[in-house]
Amino acid sequence: MIARSLRLLILLILVVLSWLLAFGNNQAITLTFLGWMTPALPLFVWLVLAVFLGILIGLVFGRLAGRKAVRK
Fold this sequence. Notes:
This protein is mainly alpha-helical. The chain has 2 helices and 4 strands; from the N terminus they run αββββα. The chain has a two-stranded antiparallel sheet. The protein has a two-stranded antiparallel ribbon with strand order 2-3.
C-alpha cells in the first residue's frame, strides 16, 4: 500500500515538474548542427526529446551489455 502511494506521489511530482518545464520554456528556438537547421519548436520539446533519446540509448546499450555478460 505504501509503495503504491509512493509511486503515485512520484508520478504526480514528475507531472507537475513536466508542466512547469513546459510552461517555463515555451520560447521557440531553432537548433543548428553542421549547417543543418531544425524547425522552430519550443525549448521544452527539445528538452523532452533529448531526455527520451537518452533513455532510449541507455536502454539499448544496457541490453547489449547484458547480452555480453550472459555469454561469458
